[in-house]
Amino acid sequence: MGRILLAGATGYLGGHILTKLIEDNRQVTVIARQAGRIHPPPGSAPLVTVLPAELTQPQSIINCCEGIDTVISTVGITKPQKGLTYMDVDYQANLNLLQEARKSGVRKFIYISVYKGEQLQDIAICHAKEQFVNALKASGLEYCIIRPTGYFSDMAALFNLAKKGRVYLFAKGAAKINPISGEDLAAACVTAIDQDKREINIGGPQTMRFTQIAQTAFDVLHKKPAITYLPEWLRKTILRLARIFMPAPVFGPLEFFMTVMTTDMNAPEYGQDTLKAYFETSQ
Ligand SMILES: NC(=O)c1ccc[n+]([C@@H]2O[C@H](COP(=O)([O-])OP(=O)(O)OC[C@H]3O[C@@H](n4cnc5c(N)ncnc54)[C@H](OP(=O)(O)O)[C@@H]3O)[C@@H](O)[C@H]2O)c1
């Protein structure tokens, strides 16, 4: 089994991928801008090498892919970042890594984009991700593009609203999604190392409407559901004003979330973890 280079291990999905790679006894090099945030479980130290580096600065990753069989990158902006755009990180930082991978003769590059990313390219995050996908496809390397729906970690926003007493939804809460846990998705990412699939659309085992997700949150909290359905014109107005008045790094994640809430994001079902169980452990 060849050595894996993992970028993004300090994040939600990347952390689960690191755990899974260690469970599978894989040799891993982890790139992190804050190396101190990587804590391999006891006994796993011989498997893990941590390389402090900043992917947005190409000089800090020179030769990082020497001796690497497969690169996995979950790197991307999911929360506002001062001074950096999706094009700087989701596109350019991953491109810097891809260039190193090509230079060092890496066999395969696995990248996490987003379900329906190609259709949603008028949204800044999807545009940047799909620009990288195009570069990866043209790179000559073996590749796998993983396209997940939403993660359980993102559904926590609805759970937190339920905790406060009321959930606000758009489009009558009718859009469908099958969110996936970090653990299930990590298993699929690690399986992809030795699979011959170029693109994987993937979601969790249960497809739900947003209304059902909100109801599940209230059930877990033993509260009577209190859901307000906001009209489409209001969503459009909020987005139009936010685009003008909000700094781009704050607007981006809002734009993505408010779009997903009105788009059917039901991908092929995978895994076993349920959102209800996740909410139960988030209380
Ligand atoms: N969350 C979702 O629902 C969802 C759905 C579909 C696809 N995705 C995609 O899946 C990927 C992983 O998501 P996640 O929820 O695990 O994200 P996350 O928890 O925010 O982790 C993102 C990772 O990217 C790294 N990163 C961010 N900005 C960076 C920068 N400027 N330079 C270097 N590294 C940087 C972070 O490092 P630091 O810890 O140092 O910041 C972290 O390791 C992302 O690309 C995301 O767009 C997410």
Automatic annotation (TrEMBL):
Gene3D superfamilies found in the cross-reference section: NAD(P)-binding Rossmann-like Domain
Single GO molecular function: protein-containing complex binding
Pfam name, any one: NAD_binding_10
Superkingdom of the source species: Bacteria
Residue span, NAD(P)-binding domain: 8-195
Annotated CDD domains: SDR_a5
InterPro entries according to UniProt: ComplexI_NDUFA9_subunit, NAD(P)-bd_dom, NAD(P)-bd_dom_sf
Protein name as it appears in the record: SDR family oxidoreductase
UniProt organism field: Chitinophaga agrisoli
